[in-house]
Amino acid sequence: MDTPLIEIELIEDALSVAALLSEVRSKGEMPVCRRCNDATKTIAGVLVIDAIDEHWALCGPCWREMPKAAYAV
Ligand SMILES: [Zn+2]
Questions:
Q1: pTM of the prediction?
Q2: Is 22 helix (H, G, I), strand (E, B) or coil?
């Protein structure tokens, strides 16, 4: 699997996450964890990928498993 080198932003402060999630809901989409697709889990953080204009919501357990160091460029 190719891993393109693109700029991403990790958003994990509660206010910003809540703002992004309400934005997602306003588009008629459910903010579900991108990794496990478990709608019952609370979203803990959002990955903003500017290059493809995507927001990836991640639940608590998935967020903690994410290798953040890999993105700290
Ligand atoms: Zn998850």
A1: 0.74
A2: helix
Q: What is the whole-number distance in angstroms between the Cα of residue 13 and the centre of ligand 1?
A: 17
CA 64 – CA 58 distance, rounded (Å): 9
Domain ranges of the chain: 8-67
pLDDT digits (tens, 9 = 90+) for 2-45: 666 778 888 999 999 999 899 889 999 888 999 999 989 999 99
Between the CA of 59 and the centroid of ligand 1 the distance, in Å, is: 4
The CA 12 to ligand 1 mean position distance, Å, reads: 14
Q: Residues 32, 38: contact at Cβ < 8 Å?
A: yes
